[in-house]
Every structure is written in structure tokens, then in C-alpha cells.
């Protein structure tokens, strides 16, 4: 009887329509996932450029990238988010003011993507640098010998070849990105963790809501792992697995 | 098919080529001229510079100085030997089919995709034309059934035959072979040499770095013996193998016999 009542009240709390908080949680989840996607994508872009810069760039580019990856990987992400978020928003406003424009309110969404993307980019630089180095030189040489231009070579030979080596590391980065979105709660962005905290403190059902949020993060993680496994299998097409030949 | 087939136009010319790796002087001024239809074999011990010489022809190694000219067109170089006109070099590279010791087929593409990669994406040949040409070449090297296979699942001999077909698929003016059978198990060498022999017989211009002396004697129109970065002796194969002049070449031939 009591168990039934507890279950019923829990379901009421998590119902999609008010006064249930289900829809709020799912909206928070959607925002978290979108920020994670944006940050992961930006991180991939920064990481690709960073890896190529570190491998083939001039001395200045290499030094700057070394400073970037060292600092970002050394400082706790929460501190980086606070620093970057406030520095990023205030420097944009300073720029606008100095050009004679009005101060603007920067959306937490955009700022979140940029801040987490910069963090992701530092790790992605190292993951991709290692993966590029793992491509056998003969694969690149064959393309050079046949007159393939450098950008096409990077796109059609190096990137697909390094993917297999990069995917485990990138999958890690993606999972970290989904969870790092929770850190954006400290700057007041309504992602999953923040709305969970709001729901919990309003209803005093702390256990229910944090379990629910945990379950949502877990579902994302499980789905992502399945997706990355398929992606890796595809990237490894054409490779003989150890022990099968 | 003697060397200096003066009737046919010049295909590849290397003049006074030098190459240093740091302080190590690998090539100390070597020259070579191949006319269309010539098969030039470069032989020599390990460290003689024969692979470096071949790889300088398409600038996989940057020469330190000298001149490389393909079909009468000199590759534009900076004073330090590096290529100065990327577009020109890419165009010239497309006219030279290179075959490597370790095959270097792209592992993420099937055999057919390997063959059409450069014709379709770099040379802008229509896809169906390239596929048609690729299938004919695969049939020719005995791999018609392997077009959908990934290279890692084929034998070394099959991979090297596919790599030769890939080079031919660009319809190159000349072929460069860099020790094409050195990475193969002995029982697979024959099938690859047979394909190369077929190309020589149809009058293709080829430069061939090889350890297979019997084969060099059989297919080459001209043989160059390199020692310590210099041409020690050169001439028609019967003369070079039958009546070597220098002591070093005599010793070398004895050691590989």
C-alpha cells in the first residue's frame, strides 16, 4: 500500500505535464545534449587544427598550442568555465562598448558551447595528434606520389585512416562533454543539473529527482557508447583484427 | 632495346643529382636518361642510394641539387632543391606511376576504390570511365574477383599486383618500381615479376630498382650499378652482367648470385 503510494507520488512528480517536472527535466536534458554536441563539434574543429598545427606548424604556432593544451588540461574545468565564461562575456561586451555598440546579454547557450568547446579542443588536439601519427607513412606517401593535393590528402587519406585510432579517445571526450555540461549550472544555465536542483528544492523530493537525472545521463552514455562502437567498427573496416587471420 | 633509344623521345632525365640527409651524402652526382620504351634497372648494395635516386625522380625525396626532367619538362626547383611549383609537381607525379616495396594500398578502401581514387578525385575522370578502366586492369593482373576486397585481406603478391594496377589506372607516361618484390614471400615473387615483365614487353617506360638480378637482366634495356652514391658502371644488361668491368660490380654480382 505504502509502496504503491510512493510510486504514484513519484510518477506524479516526474509527470510530463505540470505540476509534474518531467517536461522541465527533458528540456534541461535537451539543452545539455545540444551544448555537448556543440562543444564536442567545436572541440573537434579546434582539435583538428591544433593537431595539424602541433605536427606541421611553425615554431610560433607550436608554442602557442603547447601553452593552450598545457593550461587547459592542467586547470580544473570548473575554474576554467568560470574564468572563460566571465572573461568571454565581458571581453565581448568591452569590445562592443569600445566600438560604440550597446552591451549585449550573451546567451548561456552560446557561451556554454564556446567555453566547453575550448576545453574539449585541448584534449582533442592531443587525441588527434596521436591518431595522425599512427597513420603509416606509406599511406600518405602513396597519395603524394600520385599527385594528390595536400588538403585532399588530409581529408581523403589521413583523416579516415586516423579515425580508427582516434575514436576511443573521442568517445571519452564526448562522454566528458555530456557530463561537463552540468558544470554550466554554476553560471546559471538551465541545463539538466540545474533544473534538477530546482525541481528537487521546490518539491523537497531530492532523491527522486537526482536519481532521475542520473538515469538520464546514464541513458545518454549507453546510447553514445553503442553509437561509437558502430562508428569504430566502420572506421576499422579493411583492418584485420588481431587473432582473426 | 638498347639504351639511348635515340629515335624515341626522352621520357625521364636525371642530371647531376645530389642528395644529402644532414651530413650524410647519399647521392654524389648521378645522371640517367630514359627514352620512351626504355627499361632502366638500378642495382646496387643496400645503402648505395638506389632507392633514394628513384624517389628523387618524383620528389618523394627532395633533391639537394641537380635536375629532374620528365618528358622534356624540368621540375621547377628552389635553389635548395625543394619543388617550387606545387601544381606542376602534382601534374608530373600523375604521369609517373610509383610502385612501393610495401605496396601502400590504402587500407580503408577496397581494391577498386584504391584504383579509381586518384583518377576520379584528382584527375577528374568520370567515375564510370575510371571504373571501367580499373576493372580491365584488375582482370589483366589477375584480380578481377578481388575488386571489393580490402587490401589487408589479400596476400602480399595480390596487394602488389593491385598496387601496380592502381598506378596504371592513372595512365602514367612511365612507371617507377622501388624494390617491388623485396617484401614478398619467395613463392609470391614470380606472379609480380610476371606482371612487370608484361608491362616491359608492351614497351612501357620503366625505372626499376631491384634485387632480382636475373629479372633485371631479362627485362632491362639498360642497367645502372650504383655504389656509394655514384654510378660505378652502366650499360646493356648482357654487358653489365656478362662482362662486368669494375671489381666492385664483379664482387657485388658474386655476392648476390
Question: What does this 3D model show about the protein?
Answer:
The complex is a heterodimer of chains A (245) and B (257). Chain A is mainly α and 245 residues long. Chain A has a single domain, classed as MetI-like fold (Orthogonal Bundle), CATH 1.10.3720. Helix content of chain A is 79%, strand content 0%. Chain A has helices spanning 2-14, 22-56, 59-74, 77-98, 108-133, 137-145, 150-180, 192-203, 206-235. The model of chain A has no long low-confidence stretch (mean pLDDT 86). Chain B has helices at 50-57, 86-94, 111-121, 127-140, 156-168, 186-201, 213-219, 237-242, 247-256; strands at 10-21, 24-35, 39-44, 65-70, 73-74, 96-99, 174-178, 205-209, 222-227, 230-235. In chain B, strand 4 and strand 5 form a beta hairpin. The longest helix of chain B has 16 residues, at 186-201. The relative contact order of chain B is 0.17. Chain B has 257 residues and is α/β, with parallel strands linked by helices. Chain B has a domain at 110-170.
List the helices and strands and how they pair.
The complex is a heterodimer of chains A (245) and B (257).
Chain A: H1 2-14, H2 22-56, H3 59-74, H4 77-98, H5 108-133, H6 137-145, H7 150-180, H8 192-203, H9 206-235
Helix pairs in contact in A: 2-3, 2-5, 2-7, 2-8, 3-5, 4-5, 5-7, 6-7, 7-9, 8-9
Chain B: E1 10-21, E2 24-35, E3 39-44, H1 50-57, E4 65-70, E5 73-74, H2 86-94, E6 96-99, H3 111-121, H4 127-140, H5 156-168, E7 174-178, H6 186-201, E8 205-209, H7 213-219, E9 222-227, E10 230-235, H8 237-242, H9 247-256
Parallel strand pairs in B: 3-8, 3-9, 6-7, 7-8
Antiparallel strand pairs in B: 1-2, 1-4, 4-5, 9-10
Helix pairs in contact in B: 3-4, 3-5, 4-5, 5-6
Amino acid at each position: 500500500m505504502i509502496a504503491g503510494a510512493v510510486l504514484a507520488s513519484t510518477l506524479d512528480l516526474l509527470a510530463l505535464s505540470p505540476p509534474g517536472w518531467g517536461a522541465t527535466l527533458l528540456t534541461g536534458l535537451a539543452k545539455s545534449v545540444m551544448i555537448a554536441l556543440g562543444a564536442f563539434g567545436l572541440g573537434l574543429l579546434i582539435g583538428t587544427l591544433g593537431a595539424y598545427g602541433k605536427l606541421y606548424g611553425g615554431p610560433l604556432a607550436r608554442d602557442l598550442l603547447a601553452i593552450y593544451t598545457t593550461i587547459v588540461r592542467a586547470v580544473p574545468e570548473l575554474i576554467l568555465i568560470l574564468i572563460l565564461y566571465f572573461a568571454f562575456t565581458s571581453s565581448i561586451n568591452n569590445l562592443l562598448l569600445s566600438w560604440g555598440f550597446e552591451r549585449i546579454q550573451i546567451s548561456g547557450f552560446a557561451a556554454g558551447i564556446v567555453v566547453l568547446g575550448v576545453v574539449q579542443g585541448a584534449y582533442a588536439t592531443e587525441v588527434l595528434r596521436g591518431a595522425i601519427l599512427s597513420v603509416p607513412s606509406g599511406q600518405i606517401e602513396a597519395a603524394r606520389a600520385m599527385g594528390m593535393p595536400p588538403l585532399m590528402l588530409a581529408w581523403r587519406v589521413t583523416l579516415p585512416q586516423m579515425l580508427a585510432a582516434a575514436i576511443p579517445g573521442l568517445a571519452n571526450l564526448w562522454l566528458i562533454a555530456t557530463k561537463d555540461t552540468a558544470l554550466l549550472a554554476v553560471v546559471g544555465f538551465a541545463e539538466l543539473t540545474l533544473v534538477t536542483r530546482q525541481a528537487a528544492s521546490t518539491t523537497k523530493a531530492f532523491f527522486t529527482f537526482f536519481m532521475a537525472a542520473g538515469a538520464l545521463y546514464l541513458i545518454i552514455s549507453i546510447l553514445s557508447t553503442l553509437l561509437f562502437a558502430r562508428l569504430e567498427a566502420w572506421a576499422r573496416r579493411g583492418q584485420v583484427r588481431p587473432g582473426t587471420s | 632495346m638498347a639504351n639511348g633509344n635515340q629515335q624515341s623521345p626522352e621520357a625521364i632525365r636525371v642530371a647531376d643529382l645530389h642528395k644529402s640527409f644532414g651530413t650524410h651524402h647519399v647521392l654524389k652526382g648521378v645522371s640517367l636518361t630514359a627514352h620512351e620504351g626504355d627499361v632502366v634497372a638500378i642495382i646496387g648494395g643496400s645503402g648505395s642510394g638506389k632507392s633514394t635516386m628513384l624517389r628523387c625522380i618524383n620528389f618523394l625525396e627532395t633533391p639537394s641539387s641537380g635536375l629532374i626532367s620528365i618528358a622534356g619538362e624540368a621540375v621547377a626547383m628552389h635553389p635548395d632543391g625543394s619543388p617550387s611549383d606545387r601544381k606542376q609537381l602534382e601534374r608530373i607525379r600523375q604521369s609517373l606511376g610509383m610502385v612501393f616495396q610495401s605496396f601502400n594500398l590504402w587500407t580503408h578502401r577496397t581494391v577498386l576504390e584504391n584504383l579509381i581514387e586518384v583518377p576520379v578525385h584528382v584527375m577528374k575522370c568520370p567515375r564510370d570511365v575510371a571504373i571501367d578502366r580499373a576493372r580491365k586492369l584488375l582482370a589483366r593482373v589477375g584480380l578481377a574477383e578481388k575488386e571489393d576486397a580490402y587490401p589487408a585481406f589479400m596476400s602480399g603478391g595480390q596487394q602488389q599486383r593491385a598496387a601496380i594496377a592502381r598506378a596504371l589506372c592513372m595512365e602514367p607516361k612511365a612507371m617507377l618500381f622501388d624494390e617491388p618484390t623485396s617484401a614478398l614471400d619467395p613463392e609470391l615473387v614470380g606472379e609480380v615479376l610476371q606482371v612487370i615483365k608484361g608491362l616491359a614487353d608492351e614497351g612501357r617506360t620503366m625505372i626499376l630498382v631491384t634485387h632480382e638480378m636475373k629479372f633485371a637482366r631479362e627485362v632491362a634495356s639498360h642497367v645502372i650499378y650504383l655504389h656509394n652514391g655514384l654510378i660505378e658502371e652502366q650499360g646493356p644488361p648482357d654487358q653489365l652482367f656478362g662482362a662486368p668491368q669494375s671489381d666492385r660490380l664483379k664482387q657485388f654480382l658474386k655476392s648476390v648470385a
